[in-house]
Amino acid sequence: MKADADGHRDLVLTALLRQLSSAADSLVSLSEDDALSARLVSHGAVAAAMQVMPKSGRKRPGLALSLVRLVANLTEVESGVVALLQVGDENLQGMYVRKLVHLFCRSSAQDIFDSVALILMNTSKVEAGRMILMEPKKGLLKKIVQQSDSVNQLRKKGVFGIICNCCFGADTKIHNLLSLPIWPILLLPVAGSKIYGEDDRAKMPPGLANALSNEREPVENSEIRQKALQAIYKIILQDEGQTAFFSINGPQILQAGYEEEENPKVMDAYELIGSLVTPELFRNLASRISSMVVTIEDTLTYEDYHVGSVIHKTEAVTFVLTKGKVVGQSGLIVHFATESKPAQCLASDGQLSILAIKEENKICDSLIWRDPEGIRCLNLSTILRKEL
């Protein structure tokens, strides 16, 4: 009896697919059931919808919207994602995904393709989907992240879900992720309302620095804030991601956001990152390079005290990590000053704990340390002052 019922159901589904244009709404309702969704996939529903959807956007927007919702439901099941990705066909694999990204990202006042975000988010849950989205030559993820500032909450939430899912590939795709303007996108929703001064902004990417220098609207959607933090966590699990995060004052930015956060789930996401950003972590980084003598070619002469000036290549100064102090040649203690506190010597009294030295291109060019204001990072190539 069950076989007869299944056979009858298959006949009905096949008939509906043949009348796709008129039966789209019915198929959307049916596809909300995972079992029926899988059967629709087996009858070619994904391919049928993808053939009609792009062509109907302008002439029949209602049909296009229904087909987007249908494919979103179909890709909730694994077989639907496989069908969309066209796995196994080297010539066609990824073609539907590229079409969807084009529909999602094209400039239009219409919002019928906002729900494509759900399809792409489902696609990014599997490794094959992430590989297609993160392929550098195609630039699909780069196009998607540009939609992160959308005022449409469905679109915006989908973008952050896609980014978060793609960060599951951070262990092998960290270079691809960091090549995108990822920090402004991920940090702004969780940065709180603090306005940063010029000295703090000097370490940040321009997009992030500009945004954090002005008042800004909070991101009210807690799911977006949570996804942003989850993505950051996955990125900083990688050494290269940690280094990039610290170099832009990431911990300081998140600390300010955490102090304003009230949602328990989002607070948990902040605290998960905090479990990584600890003195022990920094000391582990430092232990790998603490015995290294590091040459900084760009230095100031003793009498050159121009705050914020470009440092000239006049001599080489060597720095080593010694008992929590930064010590220069001949045992000189290096003093640091900032534009906001030009008289403050940040590492001269031995009370501050230097936690790590950032290594880049075999030259350590940054220090990371903890002071009463939190964890800070200083670029040694822009040292502003050196005293005997």
UniProtKB/TrEMBL annotation:
Residues 65-226 form the Protein HGH1 N-terminal domain. InterPro entries: ARM-like, ARM-type_fold, Hgh1, Protein_HGH1_N. It holds the Pfam family DUF383. Signal peptide: none annotated. Coiled coil: none annotated. This is Protein HGH1 N-terminal domain-containing protein.
